[in-house]
Design brief:
Radius of gyration: 19 Å
Catalytic activity: Hydrolysis of alkylated DNA, releasing 3-methyladenine, 3-methylguanine, 7-methylguanine and 7-methyladenine
Number of strands: 0
CATH superfamily of the largest domain: Hypothetical protein, domain 2
GO molecular function: alkylated DNA binding; DNA-3-methyladenine glycosylase activity; DNA-7-methylguanine glycosylase activity
Pfam family, one: HhH-GPD
Protein name: DNA-3-methyladenine glycosylase II
Number of domains: 2
CATH architecture of the largest domain: Orthogonal Bundle
Organism: Xenophilus arseniciresistens
CATH topology of the largest domain: Endonuclease III, domain 1
Order of helices and strands: HHHHHHHHHHHH
Shape: elongated
Helix content: 40-55%
CATH class of the largest domain: Mainly Alpha
Length: 216
Amino acid sequence: MPPARKPEISIVTPDYWEEACKHLVKKDRVMRRLIPQFGDARLESRGDAFTTLARSIVGQQISVKAAQSVWERFEKLQRKLTPANVLKLKVDDMRAAGLSARKVEYLVDLALHFDSGVVHVDAWHDMSDELIIDELVAIRGIGRWTAEMFLIFHLMRPNVLPLDDVGLIKGISESYFSGDPVSRSDAREVAVAWAPYCSVATWYIWRSLDPLPVAY
């Protein structure tokens, strides 16, 4: 019997990107310099909510290469990655795929939250960023930073400012403060000019440090 074909992942980009870039170029001197350097490149969202969050848990505290290897072995344990299918997996098989005992617990808790309907995925479209963050951080293994990355990369919310992100703080330091240390309040002050498109500005700050686009 031939192996099941993986469904093609559709890639979505934000419809507000051009408007955001015009705003940022007008309001901020660094963005005026940065944005033209990256042409038509923009934020991309792929995969579904459950898969995106599961990948973020698998990738915690290990290298990108190691995370990809573990993820591929984990995916092969089921014909299709769904919350219900994850709940049917044996702990020993998940551990054999390279997952730590803690990450197994986190993935099971994530699957339980999705399978039971505790997270209101269908209502997220109409919910505020903070309400969605509250739902996500109630899941074991998901902290505020992961929830904010989910808002940016999956839900493509335009005005997220992830102050716990090391890359954002480093990029603000280099681009706005000549490399001097930057506090959270310094970062907030810089971001006043970015609103209501902090997510877009953050993406360009990341690009200033690494020309390859960030993806989750």
